[in-house]
Amino acid sequence: MDQTQDGAHVAAGEARDKTPRTERGRRTLRKLLDAAAVEFGERGFHEASISGITRRAGTALGSFYTYFDSKDEIFQALVRYMSEQLRDHVTPLVQAAPDEISAERIGLESFLGFVRAHKEIYRIIDEAEFVDYASYRRHYETTVARVRQRLEAGAARGEIRVDVGEIHAWAIGGMNVFLGMRYGLWDEDADISEIARIANDFVANGLVKRD
Amino acid sequence: MDQTQDGAHVAAGEARDKTPRTERGRRTLRKLLDAAAVEFGERGFHEASISGITRRAGTALGSFYTYFDSKDEIFQALVRYMSEQLRDHVTPLVQAAPDEISAERIGLESFLGFVRAHKEIYRIIDEAEFVDYASYRRHYETTVARVRQRLEAGAARGEIRVDVGEIHAWAIGGMNVFLGMRYGLWDEDADISEIARIANDFVANGLVKRD
Amino acid sequence: MDQTQDGAHVAAGEARDKTPRTERGRRTLRKLLDAAAVEFGERGFHEASISGITRRAGTALGSFYTYFDSKDEIFQALVRYMSEQLRDHVTPLVQAAPDEISAERIGLESFLGFVRAHKEIYRIIDEAEFVDYASYRRHYETTVARVRQRLEAGAARGEIRVDVGEIHAWAIGGMNVFLGMRYGLWDEDADISEIARIANDFVANGLVKRD
Amino acid sequence: MDQTQDGAHVAAGEARDKTPRTERGRRTLRKLLDAAAVEFGERGFHEASISGITRRAGTALGSFYTYFDSKDEIFQALVRYMSEQLRDHVTPLVQAAPDEISAERIGLESFLGFVRAHKEIYRIIDEAEFVDYASYRRHYETTVARVRQRLEAGAARGEIRVDVGEIHAWAIGGMNVFLGMRYGLWDEDADISEIARIANDFVANGLVKRD
DNA sequence: AATGAATGAGGGTTCATTCAT
DNA sequence: TATGAATGAACCCTCATTCAT
Predict the structure, then answer these.
(1) Tens digits of per-residue pLDDT, B103-113?
(2) What is the DSSP string of D44-107?
(3) Residues 31-60 of A with CB under 7 A from strand E
């Protein structure tokens, strides 16, 4: 976790660096982050408590503040970390796709799989909308920007229509997120790859009847 | 409440009816709901306070509890109320559309307009995900169910492909919500009808190049 | 109920008389007292609420204050009323006793029966210790004074030892109250007259072995 | 709590142990208990406030909750503690008595002395009837059980009649409590050992005239 | 007399954060 | 670094009592 963005609290005086120096410190930091993921995922930001995190981590309450300045800060760190985990899961699969249409199908399918396997991540990122708006917005802008790049590259390669742009990217992002909620979070049994196939056919061909 | 179902909390013994019996009571109830919409919209559920609501409503703190059992309860009432307001705004416009494809365009455009005009409603409904999950889920399931009905009716009329179903409905729902966030909430200046036109062309024809 | 004792609130200005003038008023007053007996008996003074009383009585909340000045006042009225009910139940039976020893047995037995039949009365009078100390003290002082009178009359008639006095009366009072709690309130099944017989034998003869 | 059983509220999930681990913690806990005894004794359970307790204890309001989960809990702890204090005062004196009749006299006299010296204890234990019924009942059942054991042991030793049992024990318990109230709490000046002597003579010989 | 809405003081409890060891 | 006690602002909710009709 770094503190580049929103670094308002750096200016005023002491900017003690909370990066652990020792191996033991790094272990504790990791335990806290893992515990926080579970605590925030299970109880949500406001119900979650620092003492809940340290209890799960097996550390003393006070130790928390050796590594983080506040509850908000660890949440922010977690959102960034999870956003990256999601990206790291999806990106290589998408990049291996033979063409842009397939890439979107694979992107959705891998997203659905990830949501199912890590439901707490979905929740935590979404709750950022009400806890750390900057992180929330950054996550979705980044995610959608990647969609847009793929679309424009696909268009440049002649695989899809040439007028694709930001609007299409947000539309696809929204579709994926809602399908993730509906079939990743809520419906345990749906066949993920079938859903991705159908949605992808829709994205590719739209609603109009073709013959 | 907290991530559980809503429930008709009547069961245990006393279920004193909080419905106002006098005209004065109805006025106060309305003032409280209006004030709560502003308070929750501006500060979010957790930052919002009952005293903030009554201050805005111009009533005594205790009067709040003449009409609501808890902070959760008024939030729930508000989500339902706003969900209905949104529906009442969009539905007649959509129903007047000449065909299903146009209906989706008009639906999106009117949604974007509504979000711009009532930003707090968007926020409140979304925050329900973390405050009153049942309301949140009900809102989106209801909304998407309406999309699905339109799609299937359009298919029955031969206006669109016949294999549309739940997945397409959730995809369109997600798309609309994200475009609402991006161009309704974040971007004040975007031309709403132009966005709806582009997104609708995407929905109609998909990504594939047509000639 | 009257307001002779502790009438501090009479002096200051308006001493509106709360005695009902109409028949309808007298009915409402009675309903309130009955409801209060149930409410206080079931929930205790502090858990009880005026609205609980009026709900049980089937009157409007505001009507309560047509008849009583405060929660304390109705409680006080109730304690006095119940104290009298208890006395009215016990006294005639005791007075019909052939001698003082028997009188004490009958007094205990009828008290045990009364407690069983009116558990809420026991509770209400006892709680007065923490709500309306004056009423509590008056109740027990009155009760014990009656025991003492009986004892002294019995001694004068030569039925019992001549040195009986206040201490004996308080001892007998306490004995009765505890047996009432143990075998009237807690133990539904105990044979009341057998208990009274054993206790009375103890009161008559004491612990010392006789042959 | 309220009229129900006490219970080892461990069950549901987190049972953070509130036992202090440091010496400083033990000191604070003790200060809180002492302050609570005064606060509850002076104002009664319902008038007492947590902030009143911490003010008297000289700690911050929040510190209370480091050691107790609720106002009920500290009250319960206090009742148990006081019940033990009373027992520790009376028991050794009673056990040193030469015979059972004397034991009861000494028991009463030491009880009267204790009540006078610690009026708040009498009040707190009695108020438990309306705050923490289980504690109240446990206190008196334990106390009376001790009386009963003494009686039966005395009978076995041939010092008193052989048919003594539970009823006699509750009778004696009630006598003591009422005499404690009358001559320990209300009457500062009465000669305690004289009262105990008279009451004991009554307990030993009963009401019947002997010559 | 009756009704039911309005009032607001008051208190228990939570918990992020700080501090002393 | 780690520990766990200490701090106190903040807030929800209750309910006796008053008021207007």
Answers:
(1) 999 999 999 99
(2) HHHH--HHHHHHHHTS-GGGHHHH-S-HHHHHHHHHHHHHHHHHHHHHHHHHT-SSHHHHHHHH
(3) 47-51
